[in-house]
Amino acid sequence: MIKKAPELKIAFISQYFHPEPFSNTDMVRALLENGHSVDVFCCVPNYPAGEFYEGYSNRDRREEELHGANVYRAWTLPRGKSKIALLLNYLTFPVTASWQIARKLKQADVALVSMPSPLTQAIAGIFLKRTKGVPLVYWVQDIWPESPILTLNLKSALIVKPLEWICGWIYRQADLVLVQSKQFPAMIERFDVQSNKIRFLPNTAPEEYAPKTRDESKDEACLVPQNGFRLMFAGNIGESQDFDTLIEAARLLRAETALVWVIIGGGRGLESARKRITDLGLEDQFLFLGRHPMNRMPNFFSHADAMLVSLKDNAIFNLTVPFKMQCYLACGKPIVGSLNGEGARILEQSGAGYVAEASSPAKLAETIRKMVSSSAAERQKMSELARTYFLERYSRDKVYGDLIAWLREASENVDSKASSTAGT
């Protein structure tokens, strides 16, 4: 008789969780489906608009059960719409989450900190490791300190040097560091993190992300135009998505009267993007559908002729792979990319679409023309290649199987408890 491995008691820490549009919810669901128990410590949901979701506040729904996980929401300062509000949101979560962990967590075999920005949310995991000897695993999806340095244009050594020191200290506290891009390890090893502690764990896509027919998606048909060439973008609208380039490309494509840009999502850059579109007289080319639940996205995708993924050209974004890339691939959609680096490499290698140089409106316009002029048979081939590439490299079984194996490895690390009290 094969002895079943014991379940893990996992403390899952991240600022972002359901109903916010992140992969964290699917990851927790997969851990539960594999027989493990999970306590989630997160913010009151406020991403991306910077306001609390309806039904949530610092008084309401601070604790709930989701898919069998206990969800504890730390007292939260919402992101707001200013950089000061965002900074305060980043700085307060480690404190309030640590307090919530101290009050609510009874037992854990391992802590998993899922980290889109900011890196500082890991401090709550470090608190748990230092106080209770719980092994600590990070899943890094954004490289710090470069991300805030480039995004905020930080130049003063009085800010940059301490930030580098803090980030290095945070990275070194982990027993294992999982990274979403193959380009990340070198960026973390420079902080004296041993290479054997770093593992590649890419994003996957939620279980419901699979090719859908238009007949399966009739509710969405009334929202998406049923004629013309529909180029669809789904996700956050912010600085990194480089909407200035997309809008300028649309201006260059004004004569392509059959082309419709369908935008699903919201974010800090939404209003400025809409204003720019209005100023250029491009309203007839764009359709903004607002935010919709993640589980409806595959239905919307079925009404698109091609999907759009974009990242601004900078040294850090060129290392990353947007989560929407795996989602588009999983749904078997042709893709137009406006990005460089690792994301561009994946799109080219998969054969799932065409890539334009990042932050180049002229190149993007040229690439969109190429997609629009492609035949239905050519786009069908891209669809098949996209789905195959996803299943071979990013399937849920593979990604979450690796994750669970590494969480178990960390939990069985006999040196972890001793190292938790050692300063570095």
UniProtKB/TrEMBL annotation:
GO molecular function terms attached to this record: glycosyltransferase activity
Gene3D superfamilies named among the record's database cross-references: Glycogen Phosphorylase B
CDD domains reported in the protein's UniProt record: GT4_WbuB-like
InterPro entries recorded: Glyco_trans_1, Glyco_trans_4-like_N
Keywords (A to Z) from UniProt: Transferase
Domain Glycosyltransferase subfamily 4-like N-terminal: 26-203
Domain Glycosyl transferase family: 225-387
Identification of the protein by name: Glycosyltransferase involved in cell wall bisynthesis
Entries under SUPFAM superfamilies matching the protein: UDP-Glycosyltransferase/glycogen phosphorylase
Organism domain of life: Bacteria
